[in-house]
Amino acid sequence: MEWSWTGVLYHPGWVVSTVILGLVVRMQRKGSWNPRACPVDLTGKTAIVTGANTGIGKFIALDLAHRKARVILACRSQERGQAALEEIRRKSHNSNVHLQLVDTSSLRSVRDFAHRINQEEKRLDILVNNAGASGLPKAMTSEGLELSFATNHLGPFLLTNLLLDLMKRSAPARIVNVSSANHWRGVVDFSHFHGENLTYRLDS
């Protein structure tokens, strides 16, 4: 008996199981999720959210503040970070929300930030690596790294490693990395990391 992929793909059992799986996924996507319905209380916990002045990062920080965590907004801009700080404190009625400056494209900035955290904080229960950017101009950092790669990958990786001992001492602790679907558009070329052989395409 000759075997072929066509026979497998068109087998009635495969077709039925695919339809059932599609219906299950569709039903799950229709369901709404209300974070306020989650009863988790984070009193006594400390959380850091990078890029917390806007977008997903700000809403994560706001939710953590609602749950009574001590929240540190890790932002690049003093002005935008302060505005987010005031808004989150007002909406959550939690005054234990603080601002620390860090630029994840700069390894020196990341090291300085991590040093302050390790010196000032007794525990770290949650680290949310949310800061990131797309559509950045073609540029190199002062440390000789391609700007997008430093911002989105090296900075968060270094930050996590520098805070890892503090998180281990606070166990059980959690690290959350916010990612993007844009990874499928590229391939790994190690020369890119130093800004060589790059082709830039701005998102429309």
Automatic annotation (TrEMBL):
Alphabetical UniProt keywords: Membrane, Oxidoreductase, Transmembrane, Transmembrane helix
Segments passing through the bilayer: 6-25
Pfam family membership, one: adh_short
Gene3D superfamilies per record: NAD(P)-binding Rossmann-like Domain
Protein family membership: Belongs to the short-chain dehydrogenases/reductases (SDR) family.
Protein name: Retinol dehydrogenase 12-like
